[in-house]
Design brief:
120 residues, alpha/beta, five-stranded parallel beta sheet, 7 strands, 40% helix, globular, phosphoprotein, CheY-like_superfamily, Bact_response_regulator, Sig_transdc_resp-reg_receiver, Response regulator
């Protein structure tokens, strides 16, 4: 069984590219455009890794991360936060995220960071 990743990214093009690259690397991916869709998906299938954008139309990735890391059922799931604002990296420790990816990103570097959190 492949490692299962939840990807939460509201930009359709970025979401498509990331999902495509992760699938090519052997991961199983479920992608969500909103926080609400992500929370619904989380009830259905627990991922091995969550990749979470900060700016979502119906939520803030940092707040979502903090909530997930404070709940027993999800606190051990690694979370990578993505943001175009490097200043938000400082919120990484506060939210409890396991890693940070700055946008725009190099796809090879992106995959390397994913593999550090979730080796195949």
């Amino acid at each position: 069984m492949a490692n299962f990743i939840h990807l939460v990214e509201d930009d359709e093009d970025i979401r498509f590219i990331i999902e495509y690259v992760l699938v090519e690397e052997g991961y199983e991916v479920e992608a969500f455009a909103t926080a609400a869709a992500f929370y619904s998906g989380l009830l259905v299938h627990r991922p091995n890794l969550i990749i979470l954008d900060v700016m979502l139309p119906d939520g803030n990735g940092i707040s979502i991360c903090h909530k997930l890391k404070s709940e027993a059922a999800t606190l051990n799931i690694p979370i990578i936060i993505m943001s175009a604002h490097a200043a938000e990296k400082s919120a990484l420790d506060e939210a409890g995220a396991d890693d940070f990816i700055s946008k725009p990103f190099d796809l090879n570097h992106f995959i390397h960071q994913v593999k550090e959190q979730l080796p195949i």
